[in-house]
Amino acid sequence: MPGNVFQKGTLLIPTGGANHLHFVMNDPVYCPVLGYDAVLLVNISTVYPDKYFDQSCILKKGCHPFVLRDSWVVYREAGPFNLARLEQGVAQKSIKTHQPINAGDFTRIRAGFDISPDVKIKVERFMRQHKI
């Protein structure tokens, strides 16, 4: 089902027994290194003060209908994802689309990639190559 995956879009992807909200950081681009159309995804996790969390970008409760508690952006798990597989997941209903993120929070999430100590080199390279 083409058109479900786009910049600022959000996807609920089952990981670790629960659906986690993932933010789409770019419109689909062909990546010659990977050999397919890809988007960069990053997810969030609830802030627990007694556990490690990357403070590069904290999303406040209510900034998005799925964000029910203050949450941190998990830059260490960000990566390029195969567009065809994501669209197949949406078509098969294993991946659900959700309301796009607002422009202000999207900008903050993007800025966090520049300051987070947890961003992988391959993600930095993908972002540079595709001007994300």
Describe, in plain words, how this protein is organized in 3D.
Helices cover 23% and strands 33% of the residues. With 132 residues, the protein is an alpha+beta fold. The chain has one domain (10-129). Strand 1 (10-15) and strand 2 form a beta hairpin.
Can you give keywords for this protein?
132 residues; seven-stranded antiparallel beta sheet; single chain; 7 strands; alpha+beta
Flag low-confidence runs: none
The value of Rg in angstroms is: 14 Å
The major β-sheet equals:
7 strands, antiparallel
Secondary-structure element order, N to C: EEEEEEHEHH
Give helix % range. 10-25%
Distance between the termini: 24 Å
Number of strands: 7
Structural class from helices and strands? alpha+beta
* Total number of distinct structural domains: 1
What portion of residues belong to β-strands? 25-35%
Mean pLDDT: 95
What sort of overall outline do the alpha carbons produce when their principal axes are compared? globular
Query: What's the total helix number?
Result: 3
